[in-house]
Specification:
Blueprint (H helix, E strand, L loop, with lengths): L1 H10 L13 H4 L2 H4 L4 H20 L5 E7 L3 E6 L16 H7 L21 H10 L1 E10 L2 E8 L2 E2 L4 E5 L4 E8 L12 H14 L4 E6 L24 E4 L5 H8 L11 E7 L2 E9 L6 E6 L2 E2 L5 H20 L12 H5 L2 E8 L17 H20 L1 H34 L20 E6 H11 L5 E6 L11 H4 L3 H10 L16 E5 L4 H17 L1 H5 L3 E4 L4 E5 L2 E5 L2 H8 L22 H9 L1 E5 L8 H9 L6 E3 L5 H12 L3 H11 L8
Parallel strand pairs: 1-8, 12-14, 15-16, 15-17, 17-18
Antiparallel strand pairs: 1-2, 2-7, 3-4, 3-7, 4-5, 4-6, 8-9, 10-11, 11-14, 12-13, 18-22, 19-20, 19-21
Amino acid sequence: MAKEKEEKKQKYGAEQISILEGLEPVRKRPGMYIGTTGPEGLHHLVWEIFDNSRDEAMGGFADDIEVVLLPGNRIRVADNGRGIPTDIHSKTKVSALETVMTTLHAGGKFGGEDSGYKVSGGLHGVGASVVNALSIYCKAEVHHDGGKFMQEYSQGKKKASVKKVGTSKKNGTIITFEPDVEIFKEGVKFDWNTVVNHIRQQAYLVRGLKILIIDAREYAGKINDSDIFYFRELGLEVPSVAFYFEGGLTSLIKYYNKFQKPIHSEIFYVNKELDGVGVEISLQYVDDIVDRIIPFANNIYNPEGGTHVTGFKTALTRTLNTYCKKNEMMKESEGGFTGDDVLEGLTAVISVKLREIQFEGQTKAKLGSMEAQGAVATVFGEAFSAFLEENPDSAKSIINKSILALKARKAAKAAKDSVLRKGALEGMTLPGKLADCQSKSAEESELFLVEGDSAGGSAKQGRDRRTQAILPLRGKILNVERARIDKMLASKEVKSLVIAMGASIGDTFDIEKMRYHKIIIATDADVDGAHIATLLLTLFYRYFRKVIEAGYIYIAQPPLYKIKKGKQISYAYSDEERIKLAGEGNMEIENLEDEVATPEGEETEEEIKKKSTKVHIQRYKGLGEMNPEELWETTMDPAHRILKKVNIDDAEEANKIFDILMGSEVPPRKSFIQSNAKLAKIDI
């Protein structure tokens, strides 16, 4: 093994760096390479550089990676791998380091067996050069063969040639970059939790890899890292988190199921190579109705799935149907399991390793390599079949869980068909309490979900009838976190909302039939209002996630205070804004109607001046306290209102939070509340 690594190390030189095309298109069309120039694309730059270091670890050449968030929106990634080659490339006639950093599709991951990598998550030069092109500043430092080499760049262009700047006893690569605000116009601000959560996954996927993440953005002193390899060598007292896992995917399953109740104790695990495809899978069923499948290809997370997920689902359904039939655990009249039946309550991590990998797009959201489908189906099918035979108690629990899902699916279908059939017989009658808008264009139509009949009455009177529809909701809707469709549709409030949206639900949901492209949750600014909003978000997240992903869900931001100073009226949306508008000492509500006039019925000049300085502050407890004009002016008028769009920045993290807050397990929810209580704003 050591000899093989040494041979590969010797082969990894300038000639292993291949060139496909130039770099200029990246700045012109960044979305083609990083998906978006918003926060997701910004963080994708970090993943690209980190992936290169992680690939060194996957190849057995590195075991220590450090990621540092620096002042000035810079990121520093260091690894103790072999270091990018710095000798002269025969085709470009410049250093291989410069070739990798400034040429698109130049890297050590092309060329098969003679390249620097057997398996990699991406294309070394693609990631490095794209990040370089989209950065106002970038620096590459390489330690290898006793020397330290360096080159700096701006917007993808070198500032000078690669030069040797010293000697070194270490091996590895250090990349420091600062994204260009000309590209990322929404702002350059890295989110600590986003970075930590993404890299945590990678730590589970590469056994024996040490990863340290450091947040040095608030470090007040001047940071000089030119003479160090790892930033930690400075010995600063700054926030950091370290990861190191030997359990691999089994540990990752335990992490995802931390707040769940498993229905079987044994965690399934298989790791095997077939026809050049490495297949590693771990799974466990929990007492829940949703599934969590987390797929990776060469350690790249694939949120849209791909061929490996298709192979997994096919084998899972087939294996459980075969086991169930063989052991006569189901009545013939019940038929067999569908894919949805066997997925209910499943937590699974699928990881495949391929030499020649094909993704659908540079962001690697979906795996397209067809060989992965057959390899996963075969490896997983055989191993899972053996697991069921060797663990009969676990097998029984899993089968019973799937049978329950099958029965619930049939009941849910009957309930859904009944609702849809009833709607069709009644000419698709909309809910009676819905005050619909006149426009038939979904693009300009808005649906306000308001709390209670009082707010509903004000909203109906104050709205723009042409484009704004109002649906009042009575009380707190059903918590759908653990409710199937049949129980959901038995709730009048949920059923009214489903019919009003017009896009159906479940497997017949069609986002193209949505009647409104803005659904605005407008609840009171109190605990009950927040609870109702959370219940609605749970409903959309679990059963209408595509509506959130399409950007159709918004939360209204009604004002907390109405401030009247003389004839001037203004609104404050926070306590800070109230203080700014009315002053710190003007919290007491004044009653302007009780002002005392002079005996002659006329106010003196002194009294008029005194009255004009008084401030009347009204604290809104709910939307129902506003008259139609106030509600329109502050919350519904597109020209002045404030809306917050609901996004799913991190689906898995959101999934975990919903599990904690809306699930049946009390201890995790209690712990979450205790840990985050200090962040709450209490209105007494």
